[in-house]
Queue: 4 jobs
Job 1
Amino acid sequence: MCGIVGYAGSESAAKVVYDGLKKLEYRGYDSAGIAVMNFGRIEVIKSVGRVEKLEKYAHILEGNVAIGHTRWATHGKPSTANAHPHSAGGITIVHNGIIENYAELKQKLVSEGEIFLSETDSEVIVRLIAKFYEGNLLNAVIKCAELLKGSYALLAICEGKNEIVAARYRSPVIIGLGDGCNFCASDEPALAGKCKHVCVLEDGDFAVLTADEVKICDSLGKEIKRQVWLNTAEPAALSLGGYPHFMIKELWEAPSTVKNTVSAFRQREEQIKDALSGVDKIILTGCGTAYHAALVGKRYFEELAGVEATVEYAGELRYNTPIISGHIVLIAVTQSGETADTVEAARLFKNLGAKVFAVTNSLHSEITRIADVVVPVAAGSEICVAATKSYSGQVSALYLLALQLSEKEVAKELLTELYGAPDLISQTLQDIDVYALAEMCARASGVYFLGRGIDYAVALEGSLKLKEISYLAGGGYPASELKHGTLALIDNKTLSAFIITDPDLAAKSANAVEQTISRGGMVAVITSLPEVQSQFAHRAEVVKLPECGKYLSPFASAAALQYLAYRTAVTLNRDPDKPRNLAKSVTVE
Ligand code: F6R
C-alpha cells in the first residue's frame, strides 16, 4: 500500500526512481511524485493519477539522488497537494503507512506557527524532521520517529546533502546494494535487474544511503548488520509477455505455481513435519483471497487429516483473546507477507506462545520474521492487484501441509492426485467457455455465488474477484442459506451462479438451483458433474469444468471463476489489473 523508491548513484536518479515506481504501481495509483536533488537543491514533481503522468518530467530532471512515491490515499483525497513527496524547511519526504497520532502532532505544530499545505498524516513527519534538523539528517529522522505512533516506511532527503535517510516501522523497506549506486524500495520488484544483493530493514531500523555506502543503524545511531540476500526479483515477471493484462498472464501461471510450490515444499518437508508433530488444533487466518484459500485448507485438515481446524479473518483475530491450549498451530496465509492484519494476528499468537506457520509468496517479508516455520508459495511476482496464481499456490501448500498429518498410505495417493492439479488448471482455462456468462454478469443488477462445502469456499472467492474488478454488487453464500433470506433478492435481473463439484452435496445444491429457477432468477451452474450438466441443460447457463476429485476441485472451479471475473471486467471495459480504490499489499489498517 503506497510504493516508495529511492536511489543514489551516478545515473539520472529521476529516471531510475520513475522506473521503480512503475513497477510498484500495484501498491497504489491515486497520485505519484518524485523529488530530485539537483546541485544541492530539491526539485519536486507530482501528479494526480498514475505514475506514467510523471514520465516526461522524469526525463528532464537532473540529479543523482532521488526519492519517489505512488500513493494509495488514506488521509486526504487524491490531489496534487496531498500527493507525496512533501517538503518543509529544506527537507523532503515520502511515506508509506499511517501516523495514528498525526492530529495531536499537527495541532502542536500549528500552535508553534507551522502552516500545513496538505490533508495528509504524512506532512507532520516532514515538519518534525525540519524542526529537529541541526545539520544531521539521520539524527533529525530518529528524533522525529520517537514521536510517531503508527506505521512508517519513510525516505527523507535534505537540501545540500547527497544522501537518503530511510526509517522503518511496521511497513516494509528493502535496500538494494548496487555497484556505485544504492536503492531503497517498498518491495522487491522495484529492484528487479538493478542490483545483485538486497537486505531488509527491520522495525526500528534506520539507514543512510549514498552512492557508495549503506549504513544501517538503530535508534541510538549504533551501526547494525542485516543479512544480505541475492536479489531474486525477475524483470521478466514485470512485463506482460504478449498478454493484454497481468491478470490473465498470472492466471495462466497458476499451473507452474502449483508445480513450483510442490518442489519448494519438498525442500523443507523434514522441518515442516517436525514442527507439525503432535498438533491437535489448527487456526487458519488471512484476508481476502488468502482467507478463501484458508477456508479450503480447513476442509483439507479436517477431512484428509482428521485435525480440527477453524478459519478466522485476520482483521478480527488480531483483536480476539485466543485461548492457547494443547498443541495449537496458527497458519497465517498471505501472498505479500506484509498484510498488516495477518502480520499482527501472527504476532499475537507468537507472543502467546503458539507455534506460527506462514504460508507466503514473499520469503523476505515481515511474516517470515515472526513465523516459526515458513511454507513457501512459489508464485513469483504477482503484479495484478487481484490475486490469482497465488491462490492456487496457497491451496496447494495447505493441501501438502494436511498430507503431512494424514495417514501414510492415504497421503501417498492424495499426493499423486495433487500432481494432476497443474494439468487440471490448464485444461480448465483451455476448455472453459464463460463468454455468455460474462455477458450475463455484466447485465445483471446483482450477482450471487453459491455453493456447499468446499464449493462454498470457492463461491466466496468468485464473488470477491467479480466485485473487485468489475464493480458489480453481489455476494457469496452457502447454497443452504439461500432460502433463509437471500432468495428475497432474486428477480429476473439478478444472476445466481451455483458451483457444484462435490457429488455428495450435488443433490442438495441442485434443490437450491431449482428454487431459484422457479422464482424467475437468471441462473448459472458451474459444474464438473455430468449428471448436473444434463439436469440443467437448457434451463440454466451451464459452464462445464473438467471432471476431477472433490479435493482438487478448487483448482478448477476457482480458476474458472477468476477467469469469469476477468472476462466480465473486460466486457465492461474495466482495468482488471488496477481496480478502483484498491491496492495490493494492505500494510495499513
Ligand atoms: C483479492 C486480493 C486481496 C488479498 C488480500 C490479502 O484479489 O488480492 O483480497 O488476497 O489483501 O493479501 P495477502 O495475501 O498479500 O495477505
Note: Residues 160 and 345 are 43 Å apart (CA to CA).
Job 2
Amino acid sequence: MIAEKMMPLVRNNSAIRTMFEEGRRLAALYGPENVFDFSLGNPNVPAPDAVKQAILDVLEEEDPVFVHGYMSNAGYEDVRAAVADSLNRRFGTAFHENNILMTVGAASGMNVILKTILNPGDQVLVFAPYFLEYGSYVRNYDGELSVVPPHLPDFQPDLEAFRRQLSPKTKAVIINTPNNPTGVVYSEETLRKLGEILREKEKEFGTDIVLISDEPYRELAYDGVEVPYVTQYYANTVVCYSYSKSLSLPGERIGYLVIPDEMKDSGEVFAAAVIANRVLGCVNAPSLMQRVIKRCVDEGVNLEAYDRNRSRLYGALTEYGFSCIRPQGAFYLFVKSPLEDEAQFCRICKEHNILVVPGSSFACPGYVRIAYCVSYQQIERSLPAFAQVARACGLRGA
Ligand code: PLP
C-alpha cells in the first residue's frame, strides 16, 4: 500500500526505533539509573521561567478568539516584527516583518524553503557530517543531495572540495552552525570564503544558488565564541531558525525563516514560501507559541548546565584516551571511534550500557555522536563505564 518513496524511510526508521527499544530493554534489566542514553538530542534543561509566565500572561491578557484563531499564513505581523527587531539589535541586521516567516520549527522551515525553490533534479550540497534528515527533506521535492566529504580533523567545511562539487545544477547549499553532530562553529573567515565561492560560481554558471543556514543551535555557544550572522556574508541566504533548543521547546514546534531583502527576488520568494507553508499542511505556526515568542524574543536557556556537561565529559573522555574535537557549540561530542569498525565500538559501548549514535548516521563513519543534553548525574555515573570501554578498546582508561 505505501508509496515507493516511503520504503527506505520506513526501513531506516526501524533502525532508530531499535535503538530506542534497546534503551528501554536495558533500563528494564539494569535499572534506568544504570543505563547511559546519550543518543537523543532532546534538551534536558527546562524552558526559562519567562516562557511559562508568558503562556499564562497570554491566556490571561489576550483575547482568546484572537489567540487561538487563524492569522496570516506567515504568522502574526507583530510577532514577526518583534523577531526582526531582536535580530537587528543583536546582529546589526536591518530586517522587518516581511523578512520573517513563522514556521513549525526548523524541520518545517527547511521543507518550506526547499519546496519554494527546488525543481526536480536540482542539486543540494551539504557538508558531512550532517543531520541526515536533510536527505529526506531534499528528496521530498525530488532534489538530489550531493555530500561534500568531511574536513578532518577540524570539521570546518572543506571549501576546496566544495568549489569542485558546485555545478550548474546546484540550487542550494545547506550549512548548520553550530553543528550537529560535531559542535563546531563555522568561523567568520570560513563564511566569508564560502560566500566568495558562491558568488564566483553564480557568475560562472549564470545561475542563482541559495545558501540555507539551518540554525537551531545558534544560541548554544560556549567560551564566548561568536556565531557570525550568515546573511552578512552572502546575499542569497535564507536562515532557518528554531526555538526547540534555544528555549527548550522542541515539542511546541516553533521557529522562523529569514528571507532578507538582499536576496534576489526576495518579495516573490517570501510570498511563495508563505504559500508553501500553507500547502504543506502547516497552514501557520502554532498560534499560542507565536504569542509567547513575542514576549520572550530575547530569552534563552541556562547554558551553564550544558557547558558544565561539556567540560566534564570532554575532559574525562580525552583523559581516558579518546580523541575528540572540543565542541564550541550545540550539545554534542563527536568522538573518533578507537576501533576501525565504528559499529563494533557502538556494540562495546552498549555492553557497558552506553548508547551513542554511529557517525554513519551523519554520513561520517569512524566516529560516534554523544549527546550531552542529559543530567549531570548521568554524566558522572557513566564515567566508570566509559573508562571500561576505553580499556576494552586498548586505550588508557581511568
Ligand atoms: N536541524 C538540525 C541540525 C537539528 O539537529 C534539528 C533537531 O535536532 C533540526 C534541524 C530540527 O529541529 P526542529 O525541532 O526545530 O524541527
Note: The radius of gyration is 21 Å.
Job 3
Amino acid sequence: MQRTQIKKYRIGKPIPTDSVVVDVELEQGAIPYFHTDEPAKRLTFSLEKEDRVYGLGETIRGMNKRGWIYTSKNADDPVHTEDKRSLYASQNFILITSDKRSLGVYVDTPGVVTFDIGYTKLNELRIDFEDFDADLYFVEGESPLSIVSQFRHIIGRSYIPPRWAFGFGQSRWGYKNAEDVRRVADQYEKAGIPIDMIYMDIDYMERFKDFTVDEKAFPNFPSFVEEMRGRGIHLVPIIDAGVKIEDGYDVYEEGVKGDFFCKKENGENLVAAVWPGKVHFPDFLKDSAREWFGNKYKVLLDQGIDGFWNDMNEPAIFYTEDHLKEVFEKIEDYKGKNLDIWSFFEFKGLVGSIDNNEEDYRRFYHEYKGQKIRHDKVHNIFGYNMTRAAGEAFEKLSPDKRILMFSRSSFIGAHRYGGVWCGDNQSWWSHLLLNIQQMPALSMCGFLFSGADIGGFGANTTEDLVLRWTAFGIFTPLFRNHAALGTREQEMYQFPSKDVFKHLVELRYALVPYLYSEFMKAALEEKMLFKPLAFEYSDERSREIEDQLLLGDSIMIAPVYKQNTTGRMVYLPEDMKLVRFRAYDDYDEEVLTKGDHYVKADLNEVLVFIRKGGVLPLAKPADRTTGVKVENLNYLCYEAKPEDYKLYEDDGESRL
Ligand code: GLC
C-alpha cells in the first residue's frame, strides 16, 4: 500500500485531538485543492457534476452526502429527521470522488465544523469553521478504497471486540431487576433463539450512580453475573458520563478530592443534571481524571462483567444549576401576565431550551494538555475521551482478555477504543434505511464494531419492522435489539413469528465465521467492512445505489426496508449468485445476470448475493457464539472454491 500520498496542512493553532497516530510531515504553503477565505473562516471546493461525496461517519441522510449541510457538533438529539445537521458523532473525514479524481479530506479539529456539501450552492463544497484552526489531511489515491485505507492507517487500528460480541444482544430501557433479566433469558431459550448478551440499562444502578449496583434489585450481583455466564450470557451494563453528587458516594467523593471534575470559570465544579439529578462531569480530557475514571470500571469487572456501553457522553445535559436558576428568575416576570404571541414564545423557549443548552456548554472548562480550555472548544472530543478512559484502563485491568465497549458519542480516534451504536433512532422504516446508509460511512472512519438499535428505540414498533430490521441487523457487527422506556415491547419472543426470528438469528450465528473473518481483516488490514457499491464497481448505476451494501469481500446485501412489500428491486453490477435464505440450512440459489432484477423476499427471507470469486462460509448455528465452530463449514461459492476463502481464526478473546 502506498503511504506517501497524504499531505498535512495547518490552519491557525488547532487544539490537538490525538485522532491521528502516525507522524505526517507538515507541508508549508497555501492549502491545496480548496480556496481559502480566512476572514470568512471558510474553505471552498468546486464540485463537478459527477463528484460524489462520502463519509462523515454517523450522520443523517444518504451515503452520497451531496445536497445537505452537516455540522460536527455532537448532539443528544433523539429525533433523527432529514432536517437535522448533527447527531452524536463528529467524524470529519470526507471523500470526494468521480471518474476523474478522488480525494480524501480529514479535518482534524475538536471545534465546530460545518460541511456544506452543495446546500448553499449546488456545486460548491464549503467547510466552515467556528474557529479557523485545524489540521487538514489530504489523501490522494487511485481509488476510494486506497484513500480510505491510507486514512485508516494514520488514525490507527480499529477496536477489536471479543468474538462473543458478534452474538445477539437483547436490551430494553426498563429491565428493573434480576427477575426481568432472567425472564428475557428464559424466553429466548424457550423460543430457541440464540442470544449471547443481555444489556443492563440505567435501572441496574443504585439511583443512577455509575459503578454501583442496586442491591435490592440485583441481590448478590456477582453471583447473578456468574449464574448468567453459566447460561452463556454476558451482562452488559451502561455507564453514563455524569457522576451523581451525593455525600458518601465514593466515586463522587474521590472525584472531588482528586480534582477530577469539570470546572466553571470561578473554579467551582460545574453542577449539571442528568438521570440521577445533579451531577459533576469527569474531565475526561485531563489525563489524571481519565485514568481515575477508567479504573472505576474495575468495580464491575471484578464482579464478572466483561462488556460496557458508554452513554450520555456528548455530554447530554438536562440543565445546569446556574441556568435553571436564571430560568426560574425569568419565569417570575411572566407570572400573572397576559402572554401575547411573542412573550408566549419566549416563555416557551425558556423552558423548552433548558436541556442541552448552547450556553451551558460554554459554562465549563477542561484541563487539556496543560491548558484550561472552555468546553465548547473541545465539545466533540468529550465522549471520545470517555471511551478512551475505559479503553486505556481495560488494557491494564484486563491485559489478556478483550472487553466489549461501545459508545454513543464519538470522534475519530475513539474507534481505537470501542465501537458505536447510532443512538436513539425511532421505530420508523426510514430509520432502517438510515441504518443501512450509516454503515459504510462508519467503516470509512474506522468504527467497525457498530450497529443501530434494531426495531427502533423510540416510538412503538411493529412486528414486520422488527423482522426486516433483524434481517439487516444479522449483518452488522453490533447486533442489538433495544427500545425506550414506555414503548411497545419488542423482544423477538413478544411476536407471533418466533420461528422466523429464530431462523434469522440462527442465520446470523451461521454467518459468524464470515463476519468475524471479514471484520478482523478490515481491522488488521485497514479495510472497509461495509462498502457502497461504487467503491468497487465503476459503472454509472452503481454510483447511485444507496440501499445495497458490499459486506466484506464476498457478498452484497440488499435488505428490504419498505413496509408491505414482498421483494425489492436489486441492481447487480455484475453477475452474482443470489442465495435466498429462509434459514441457514434452507435456501435456494440462482445465478442472476448483471442488471436490474425484481427479487422476491418475504418477511421470512434474507437476500445474499455472492460476488464472482466470492465464498460464503456458513457454520452450524448454536445457542451461543461459543458453540459456533469453524470446522465442517458449508461453503457457498460463486466461481470460486472453498479453499479460496481466507478464514480468520483466533481464540476470540486474547488481545492482539
Ligand atoms: C439514552 C440512550 C438509550 C438509553 C437511555 C436510558 O437515551 O441513548 O440507549 O436506553 O438513555 O439510559
Note: The radius of gyration is 24 Å.
Job 4
Amino acid sequence: MKAQPTASHFIDGAYVEDAAGDLIEVIYPATGEVIAVLHAATPALIDRALASATRAQADWATWRPVDRARILRRAADLIRDRNPDLARLETLDTGKPLQETLVADWPSGADAIEYFAGLAPTVVGETIPLGRDFVYTLREPLGVCVGIGAWNYPSQIACWKSAPALALGNAMVFKPSEVTPLGALKLAEIYIEAGLPAGLFNVVQGRGPVGAALATDARVAKVSLTGSVPTGRKVYAAAAAGVRHVTMELGGKSPLIVFDDASVEDAVGAAMLGNFYSTGQVCSNGTRVFVQKGIKDRFLASLRARSEKIVLGDPLDEATQMGPLVSAVQLDKVMGYIEGAKAEGARLITGGARGPANDGYFVQPTVFADVTDAMTLAREEVFGPVMAVLDFEDEAEVIARANDTEFGLAAGVFTADLARAHRVVGQLQAGTTWINAYNLTPVEAPFGGVKQSGVGRENGHAAVEHYTQVKSVYVGMGPVDAPY
Ligand code: NAD
C-alpha cells in the first residue's frame, strides 16, 4: 500500500521537495507498513513558506470578505465531492476506521470552511459616539498565522485552523504532525483548485524544531497549536518572546459524571463514544467516568457487554468500528498505562491486551473499575481506548473531585434532573461541556480549554476574536483644543 504525495511540502501554490531535510516515514498503523517517505523542511524552505505567505497576505487583506468567502465555499464543496478518497487517505495516515473518517474528519473540516466563509462577511466594527467626535473600530486580520497540528485529527485540525484564518484575511503556514503529514497537503491542493491565491496556505513538514522555527519567526503574528500540554508550554513561551497571539488546544483528563437518575444505556453509550472513538485518541475524551454508586453494577455490566461487541480490525473494512493506535510509540505508552493501572490495583472489567493483529498497533477497548483519584490512570492523559470508572456518593463530592486536575478541556453530566445538570455544569472547570451528550463538537460551538488545557477558542463566533485584532479610529470633527 502506498500513499506517496507528489512532494513533501506545498509552498506558494506548488509542491516542493528538498531532499536535504531529515527523513520522515509515514506508517500505516494497521500493518506497520511504510506508505510514504517525506523530508522535513530545511531552513530555506521555512523561509520560502513564510516569505510567500507574507507577500500573499498583504493583498488578501484588501479583498472583500464575500470574495474570499466564495473561494472557501468552493473548497468546502470540493472536499465533500472527494470525501471517499480523502477519507481513505486519512485512514491510511491515522489508522482510524473508514466508518469514522467517512463521516467525521474531512466532513467536519468542510463544515468549518463553509461556516467561516459565511461568517466572515458579517464581521464588522462598531461606531462609538463621543458628542462632536466619534470613534469607529475596524476588525483587521493578524497577518501570517502558523498552525501546528496533532496527529489524532490531522485534516480536521488543518481545516479548523485555516478556515477562520483565511476567511478573516490572514495567511497560514501549517505544519502537520510528523506522524500524520498527508491530509494537509491535499487541503493545500484543494484550496488552490478552489481559486485561493498562491502562498495563502502553505504546508511544511517537520518535527518539533520546524514548529519551533515557525513559532519564533519575526514575520509570524500568531501561533495556533493543537498538541499536548508539555508542547503547549514550550510553544506558548516561544510565542510570548515575540508577543505573538496564540491559540493553545491542549490535552485533557475530562470527567464524565453519571448520576443515578440518568438513562444508564445513554450514559454507557456516551462513555463508550467518549473513550473508544478514534481508538481513544481524542483530546476531549471523558476518561474519568464518575458513576454514582446506586447504578454502578448495572452500568458496568452494560458497559462490559457493549464494549466486548466492538468490531476491532481492518480500518479499510467499513464494518470495522475501531482501528489501531496511531504509532508504535503510542502503543507502548498505552500498554504501559494498562499495566500500571493493574499494578496500582484498578479492577480490569474488559480488554487490557493487544489485538487482533500483531503487526498493527491494536489495543482492545479496555475498562477499569474501582479507579481512585490518586491512581496514575485517573491523573494522566492516556490517549488510547482505556476508560477509568470511579465511584461517587453525592453531587458536592463529585464536583470537587472532577475539578481536582490540572486540566480543564471538557466535562459531561448525565442526569434526568435538568436543574441539577445546569447547576453542576456551572461549577465544572472546563471550556467545553455536555449535558446528556458527549464529545459532539459542531463548528457552530466554541471549543477549547481552561487551566492547563489551553488558551483561546476554535470554532463558533469566538474564533473571530482569535484571528482578528481591533483598530480604533478616533475621528476629530472640530478644532483641536490645545492648551499650549
Ligand atoms: P504533541 O504535543 O507531541 O505534538 C503536537 C505538534 O507540536 C506536532 O506537530 C509536533 O511536531 C509539534 N511540536 C513538538 N514540539 C514542538 C516545539 N517545541 N515547537 C513547536 N512545535 C512543536 O502532540 P501529539 O502527540 O501530536 O497529539 C496528542 C496531544 O494533542 C494530546 O495531548 C491531545 O490531548 C492533544 N490534542 C488537543 C486537542 C484540542 O483541541 N484541545 C485536539 C487534539 C489533540
Note: The CA atoms of residues 142 and 378 lie 39 Å apart.
